[in-house]
Automatic annotation (TrEMBL):
Family of this protein: Belongs to the mitochondrial carrier (TC 2.A.29) family.
Protein's UniProt name: Mitochondrial carrier
The keyword Transmembrane helix is assigned to this record: yes
GO biological process, any: mitochondrial L-ornithine transmembrane transport
Location(s), subcellular: Mitochondrion membrane
GO molecular function terms attached to this record: L-ornithine transmembrane transporter activity
Presence of keyword ATP-binding: no
Natural source organism: Karstenula rhodostoma CBS 690.94
Gene3D superfamilies, sorted: Mitochondrial carrier domain
Membrane topology annotation: Multi-pass membrane protein
Keywords, sorted A to Z: Membrane, Mitochondrion, Mitochondrion inner membrane, Repeat, Transmembrane, Transmembrane helix, Transport
Transmembrane annotation, as ranges: 93-114, 134-153, 193-213, 233-250
Region Disordered, residue ranges: 1-29
Length: 320
């Protein structure tokens, strides 16, 4: 994040450079980041969850069920109504409150630690510290991704199982809601069942290096070559970097969803990550790794850009 951008508006925790982090703060940023993270999660879910439902349903079925994203959308609306588009929305709505706060907070810590101890350690007290390079932002992104995976794993697991319930009537579904799904999973399979797919989640979030690395690149370019306001820079950099992330990580997300919707009992098909990867290729070829990509790509920009706008707006509105 460039110095000019920081000077124009109040930056959220995790989106500031190391030199700024070393300066004493006059306001309790921790509570602000937590509260703003709630609104970020709400914005992300409201805009992005219908796209996510279509994506997950395409990822976990073959063409005999849905011919494509439009067919999936129309069948879902016809059979389940608008509510069907928001199936499984409660877990991520609750989870993102914690996930966004943990992501931004840990990202800030990892950036400072990397800059202070690896890239630009101070040689004497009071030395003006250089900015964290792009590769440092990428490394911090990976570590923040791994950190948040321990919350994101069970949230996404429960969400995915709810999203692939196709019955319109609740009485015909295996799970009546997220709490019921969590209880049944825990009672039948214990803690390991709840965190099923954690290794796939950690691998998927390793690609956060592309997200946060490209976010810094886009921010620097927009600040240098445009006259956009700071919120506009955040909007465009956030949206474009999210699309870079999905372009690089999508195949691993397809495999993760297969693992998370796999039966946990005797009918389990994918005991290992590579078993799910092979099954996708065997069933649909190389194209199988990109099934459902269109709704995901369309969702990436507005959902993440609006989440960042919501976060920044609340940060500026909260009292010092």
């Amino acid at each position: 994040m460039s110095a000019s951008m920081k000077s124009q508006h109040k930056m959220p925790p995790g989106l500031v450079d190391a030199p700024e982090q070393n300066k004493p703060s006059k306001s309790p940023k921790n509570y602000q980041g937590f509260v703003a993270g709630v609104f970020s999660g709400i914005a992300k879910l409201s805009v992005g969850h219908p796209f996510d439902t279509i994506k997950v349903r395409l990822q976990t079925t073959d063409k005999s069920h849905f011919r494509g994203p439009v067919d999936c959308l129309m069948q879902t609306l016809r059979n389940e109504g608008v509510k069907g588009m928001y199936k499984g929305a409660t877990p991520p709505l609750i989870g993102w409150m914690f996930m966004d706060s943990l992501m931004l907070g840990s990202l800030s810590v990892y950036r400072r630690v990397l800059n202070d101890n690896f890239f630009h350690p101070a040689r004497y007290p009071g030395e003006q510290q250089k900015k964290l390079p792009v590769v440092g932002h990428a490394m911090a992104g990976v570590m923040a991704g791994w950190t948040v995976s321990f919350i994101a794993g069970p949230v996404e697991h429960i969400k995915a199982r709810l999203q692939v319930q196709y019955a319109a009537e609740k009485s015909k579904r295996l799970y009546s809601g997220p709490i019921d799904c969590l209880k049944k999973t825990f009672n039948n399979h214990g803690i390991r069942g709840v965190w099923h797919g954690l290794s796939a989640t950690l691998l998927f979030r390793t690609f956060f290096c592309f997200w946060w690395g490209s976010y810094e690149v886009f921010t620097q370019v927009l600040n240098t070559h445009t006259n956009l306001s700071a919120p506009a820079v955040n909007f465009w950099a956030g949206g474009m970097s999210a699309q870079i992330f999905w372009l690089t990580s999508y195949p691993s997300d397809v495999i993760k969803q297969r693992i998370m919707t796999d039966p946990l009992g005797p009918g389990r098909r994918f005991p290992r990550w590579r078993d799910a990867a092979k099954a996708v290729y065997r069933e649909q070829g190389f194209k199988g790794y990109w099934r459902g990509f269109v709704p995901c790509f369309l969702r990436a920009f507005p959902a993440n850009a609006m989440a960042l706008v919501a976060f920044e707006s609340v940060m500026r509105a909260l009292p010092e």
